[in-house]
């Protein structure tokens, strides 16, 4: 092949790659009866750097309200979450683990949180695991949702939620308490090392803005909370959100912020919105 032919082939490959490169955490929603576009953004709930890009800030400027997974400025949010954190039917963490494993968890939680497992034993184990997230970062934890809310409030915009606190808390009743406890035991036995490695990988992946790779990462996770319960954690919720996104977006242009893992996959929000008749375009 001549040098000219090689050059032309390289240009064609580069153009094809550019056209297929849909890596973006921010997506424009238009068509299907919308008078003005809305935007869909994949967030990460805990990070070392929650700074928003210029394209995200511009999308916030071009919309009239902020919709997150939950209405995070609801004054009753904390009280409602507390009600949903407890296991049902008298199940306790102590009843879900052999005595030696419970002792390991007890010592671990005392060291990491300053609370004994006995004090937290009625909580869903996942909720206890969530309390450990800030310990997995080498920095003071930041939240993308908090940064979005700061801008929303500065623009005097309403903050609403795609699901109720009760709906989100019920997710963790649909996931086996035993599996939740088994994962907490693994975390304690590794002294967070396994979890720190996974969250570091996720943070690096988030920066690539590759929503399909982010979704695939959850499917391959050693933590069964995501890999085994994809339908409960992601797919079922995605399906419930589509009709709600449709209604909200048709009322006024809205900036939707949901966990990035919800965007990718055949049953992700991006493809489900396309199936619902919307034009969904990555914002570069």
From TrEMBL:
Compartments it resides in: Membrane
Keyword field: Glycoprotein, Hydrolase, Membrane, Metal-binding, Metalloprotease, Protease, Signal, Transmembrane, Transmembrane helix
Cofactor field: Co(2+); Mn(2+)
Pfam families recorded: TraB_PrgY_gumN
UniProt name for this protein: TraB/GumN family protein
Membrane topology of this protein: Single-pass type I membrane protein
